[in-house]
Specification:
The chain is of the alpha+beta class. It has five domains: about 35 residues; about 100 residues, PAS domain (Beta-Lactamase, 2-Layer Sandwich), CATH 3.30.450; about 180 residues, GAF domain (Beta-Lactamase, 2-Layer Sandwich); about 160 residues, Histidine kinase-like ATPase, C-terminal domain (Heat Shock Protein 90), CATH 3.30.565.10; about 120 residues, Response regulator (Rossmann fold). It has 21 helices and 24 strands. Strands 2-1-5-4-3 form a five-stranded antiparallel beta sheet, with helices on both faces. A five-stranded antiparallel beta sheet has the order 7-6-12-11-10, sandwiched between helices. A hairpin with a 5-residue loop joins β3 and β4. α5 packs antiparallel against α6 and α6 runs antiparallel to α10. The longest helix is centred in the middle third of the chain and has 70 residues. The chain is rod-shaped, with a radius of gyration of 46 Å.
Amino acid sequence: MTDERRAEGLDDRVREQEEELARARVESARLQRSAERYRDLVSHANAVILRMDMRGRVTFANDYALNLFGYTRDELVGRSVIGSVLPEDNESAEALVEQVTRLIEEPGRAFNSENVNLRRDGVEVWVSWTNRAVADDMGRLAEILCVGYDITAQKKAEEALRLDDERLQSLLELSRMTGASVAESTDFLLGEAVRLTGSALGYLVFLGGDGEPSSIEAWSRGEGGACAVDEVPVRDLIESSGLWKPAAERREPLLVNDCREGGCAESRRAKEALRLSRHLSVPVFAGTRVAAVAGVADKEELYVDSDVRQLTLLVQAMFGPLQLRRAERERARLQERLQQAQKMEAIGTLAGGIAHDFNNILSPIMVYTEMALETLPSQSEEAELLRESLLAARRARDLARQILTFSRATERTRICVLVQPVLKEATRLLRASLPASIEIRQEIDPDAGPLLADPTEIHQILVNLGTNAYQAMRDTGGILAITVDEVLVSREDLELGLDLEPGPYLRLSVSDTGHGMSEEIKARAFEPYFTTKEQGEGTGLGLSVVHGIVRSMSGEVRIYSEEGQGTTFHVYLPVADEAEDPSVEAFDEGPVPRGTERILLVDDEVQIVRGVRTLLSRLGYRVTGYTSSVEALAHYEEKPERYDLVLTDLTMPALDGLRLARRMLEMRADQMIVLCTGFSAAIKEREVEAAGIAKFLVKPLLRRELATALREVLD
C-alpha cells in the first residue's frame, strides 16, 4: 500500500508538472506574440522612438526614426545621438545632456522638450520629445527611452505667422514715417527685408521704362549699414554683375543657395565680385511692368520658399508708398528748378538792359583811350597808364558779358582749354586783393582734364567764390583753400541730387573757415540780389553769376556748410577731350587796317557817335554821323548810293537798327550794313542774315576789332 500510494503521488506530481509546463508553454507563446506585436507596433509607430544608453549611444531606432533622420539601422545604432541626430554645436545637444543629468536624479520622472534635430542630409527638423529612464532587472538606470513627434510643419506655420505679423508691423511703421526722405524710407524697407529673411545684405534696383537701372540702393547689417567690398560700393558691384537681371527678365523670383554652382552667369559673377554665398531676388511689379528688383543675400541658412513669400509680400506692399515719395521728391525738385529758371528769366531781362547801357558807357571810354594812346610814345609812362586803363575797360566789358551768363541771355564762344593757368592767374589777383589775415592754400592737379570754356568765365567763377570766402572770414581771418581734381560721376551720385550726366568732371572746390551758412541761407544762396551783407557792401550777384556760368557749361554747383564750421563750394564742370593753353590777352602794336570809303554812322549815344567818327576818320574813312535813326533814314533817302557802308546801333528809339537796315536795303539792295549792339541776346544772328545785313558786332569794340570787321565787309 505504501508503495502504491507513493506511486500514485508521483503520478499526480508528474501530471501537475506536465500541466504546469503546458500552461507555461501557452503563457510563453502568448508573451512571444505580445512581444512581436509590441515590436511591430514600435517599429511602425507614427512617432520617433529611440533608445540610448547612458553614454548617449543609440541602442534602438524604429522605422519612423530611421526614415525621418535618413539613416539605415546599421548606420544609426551604436552612434552617439550628438553629432548624428543632434547638431554638436547646438543648444539641443546641451539640453539633452542636462536632461540626462536630471533623469539620473529623478529616474521616475518624464521630461518634455522641443528642439531642432538634424537629418543626415543637413536639413533641420523640429521634434517634440518625451524622455524617460528605463531600469534593468536589478533596478539600475540602464537606458533612456525617447519618444518624439515631427512638428516641423507646425513650427514653419508658426514662423510664417510671426513673420506675417512683423511684416504688417513694418508696413504700419512705414506709414507712420510721413516726414521721412526717400533715402530713409528705402533704407527702412531694405533693413526690414534683411531682418525678416535673416540675411546680411539687401538691395533694391529701380528700373526705368527701358528696363535698365535708374538707381540702385543697398543696405548691410554691417556697422552703420556700410556697403562696400574692398572700398568699392556694393551698388556698383550689383550693377556690374547684373545680379538683378534674371529676376527682371524671367519675371519671377530667383533663389540660389550656392553661387558657385548657381544656375546663371550673374550669380557666379556676384560670387566673385560681392563674395556672396547665396542670394534671393524677386521682381516688383507696377501694373504689368517690372518696376524694380529687390534682393537679399548671405543668409546663414538656406533660403526657402517662405523667404520668397516674405520678401515678395513685403517689397510689393512697401513699393507703392516708396514710389509715391520718389515721385514727390522729383516733383519738388522740378518745381524748385522751375522757380529758379523763372527767377533767372526775370533777372535776365533786367540784366540785358543794364548790359546795354553799360556797354554804351564803355564804348567811348575804350575809343578815346585808344585814340589817346596813338598820340603818345609807346614806351612813355603815360602810354603805360592808358594801356592799364584800357585793360581795365576790357575786363569791364567781359564783366558785362558775365552779368548775362547767369540767365543764359547770351552765348559765349568756348574753346577747349586747360584751366590750370587761368586759375593760377585768378589766384594771384585774389592774393593781391585780400588782407594778410587770409591764407590761401592751393592744391591744383596738373593732370585734371581740360574744359570746353571761355577762360574769362573760369576766371570769374574763382574770383567770385574767392571773394565770397573772404567776406565770410574778413573779421576773423582764416584759410581760403582752392582745390582742383578730376572725378568720375556715376549713376549713384545722381541720386544724391547732382543734376549731371554720368562721366568725368573737373571739380573746383573753394573752402573757407568762416562762419558757415544756415540751411535757409544755403537754399537762397544762388538767388539774384540775395545777400546777407550790410546795405552798400554787396550786390548779391556774385554767386548768381557763378551759378549761371556753371549751368551754361552743363555743370553743377553744390554747397556744403555748417554754421560755425565754414563753407565749401564744389563746382563740377564736364571734362573735354583736347585743350590749348589760353594765352594772356596782349595789345597788338601792329598796323590797324585802314580805308577811304564813305560810312554812315548811326547811334543814339552822342559820345559814341563822336568817338567812333573821330576814330574812323583817323583811319582814313569819310564818316557822317547821326544820333537819330529817323533823321539818318531821311538823309539816306536823298542819295542812297553815296555811302559804301552803314554802321548802325540796334537799340534806338523810334526806329531800331534792324528796321532801319531793312528800309535802306529796300532802297538799295547791295548796301553794306554792319549792325552793332550792346546786348547780343536782343537779336539772333539768323535774323541778321535773313535781313541781308553784312555783319553783326557786339559793343564795346576795340579799334582793331572794328577796323578789321569793316575791311572784311568792304573787301
